[in-house]
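in:
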């Protein structure tokens, strides 16, 4: 074997080994390497006390995921003022009892929830390449219905408010808040027009809650004066490229907002370049937050705690819950 041949073989071997290690990391380690993200959000009136909001999203529970269940249960030690669950809790017909058991310490706290598509229908195996195209949201026959009623009843019995196409108000630490939500836009169950109204002048803050952050819903909530919008669904891209970020968002939100805190205002999506492959991948580079209008809403999108049971991998996008500390705006 010549030196050139040996060098080529060594390079190929190193590449294969690196790919194998990356695949093992994405399939075994990162999906259960849970993280608590924390953000401070200046959305309350001057002089108001701070509020701690815990967001849970995209748990996609399958019975037997004991590490995930224990981690969720331990979040009660954060003692948040409000818990917001942005849907896709289930991934199996038998997942409701263990889910409610894990949430039990949190169900005694004020809370609200909306549903995602995987709270209605169990995931099925599909060609993974469809995730990179506009066909990702297509309905298909033979879907298995999940025990949605059992889930909703369990969350409601714990005192959490069902915000699916609903509007309500509550008081936390003497602060009146207004909450408005929609059922999952990803499967076209959102009916925001039925609950649309200008933000209540008597509320310290109006919070919009949605599973899948489609622009039509974000625009409508922001136009009505929501100061904070909370969403999930994207999994943060689930597979990200270091230095580049998410490849997809699985909706029409741009890639730069696939997870984390950003600003949103009516028409914000129009400022995102969409060309070539970026159009297919629902991406582009968003206008920086410094260019947002002064009254733009804050948008938080969670990367969520789970994955589809048929694509149990994550890379450069750890599963997460988020603690949002709401503080007064600058005077």
């Amino acid at each position: 074997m010549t030196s050139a041949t040996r060098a080529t073989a060594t390079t190929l071997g190193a590449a294969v080994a690196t790919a194998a290690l990356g695949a093992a990391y994405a399939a075994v380690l990162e999906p259960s390497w849970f993280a608590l993200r924390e953000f401070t959000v200046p959305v309350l009136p001057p002089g108001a006390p701070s509020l701690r909001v815990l967001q849970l999203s995209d748990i996609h529970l399958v019975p037997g995921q004991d590490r995930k269940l224990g981690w969720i249960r331990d979040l009660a030690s954060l003692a948040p003022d409000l818990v917001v669950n942005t849907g896709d809790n289930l991934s199996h017909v038998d997942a409701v009892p263990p889910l409610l058991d894990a949430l039990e310490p949190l169900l005694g706290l004020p809370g609200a929830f909306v549903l995602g598509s995987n709270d209605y229908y169990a995931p099925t195996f599909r060609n993974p390449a469809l995730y990179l195209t506009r066909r990702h949201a297509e309905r298909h026959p033979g879907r298995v219905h999940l025990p949605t009623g059992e889930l909703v009843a369990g969350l409601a019995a714990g005192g959490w408010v069902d915000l699916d196409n609903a509007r309500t108000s509550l008081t936390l630490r003497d602060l009146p808040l207004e909450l408005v939500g929609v059922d999952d836009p990803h499967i076209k169950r959102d009916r925001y027009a039925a609950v649309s109204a200008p933000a209540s002048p008597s509320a310290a803050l109006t919070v919009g809650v949605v599973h899948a952050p489609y622009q039509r819903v974000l625009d409508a909530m922001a136009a009505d004066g929501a100061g904070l919008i909370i969403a999930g669904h994207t999994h943060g891209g689930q597979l990200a490229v270091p230095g580049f970020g998410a490849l997809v968002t699985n909706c029409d939100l741009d890639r730069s907002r696939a997870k984390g805190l950003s600003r949103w205002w009516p028409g914000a999506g129009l400022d995102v370049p969409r060309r070539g492959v970026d159009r297919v991948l629902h991406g582009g580079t968003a206008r920086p937050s410094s260019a947002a209008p002064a009254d733009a809403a804050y948008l938080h999108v969670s990367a969520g705690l789970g994955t589809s049971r048929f694509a149990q991998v994550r890379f450069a996008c750890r599963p997460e819950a988020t603690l949002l500390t709401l503080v007064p705006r600058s005077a």
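note: The longest helix spans residues 3-29.
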